[in-house]
Amino acid sequence: MSIRLIVKHPDEVLRERAQEVTKFNSNLHKLLDDMADTMYDANGVGLAAPQIGILKRVIVVDADEEHGLIELVNPEIVSAEGEQLGPEGCLSIPGLQGDVRRANKVVIRGQDRYGNPVQYEGTGLLARAFQHEVDHLNGVLFIDIAESVYEARKAEEDGE
Length: 160
Ligand SMILES: [Zn+2]
What we know:
This protein has helices at 26-41, 124-137, 142-145; strands at residues 46-48, 58-61, 70-81, 84-88, 96-102, 105-111, 117-123, 148-151. The protein has a 5-stranded antiparallel beta sheet. It has 3 helices and 8 strands.
């Protein structure tokens, strides 16, 4: 396991659509391990593969103690309800935050590292993290959809 370099905005790799994963092999497992290491090292609550320069549909999220680390391959949000408006940051956009309107509850489907189908339901911060990371796989950044963008206060600089 190792910590990878986090790609920063405005790097073009953050604007591309990531590709579906078809091989659930040791390369994927190493990618997932490295992504978790990199996320925790940066005090993030989520990380998408394009953020370390890998254009694959892979995300990791750790946004609450109930779920802990969640690995998702080829994730897709299959239902969304409610609404939340709150501050959001991104490990690829250090120093900035924005108020982003998101669904308050989502169901996300994908595969685990072995290719088995998995599904999670998240509310609040976890739902926000799922939506933020899936956006990354489609080249979308929070600054594109934020209602306002402002300088992050230090204590709140946790990013996704
Ligand atoms: Zn992000």
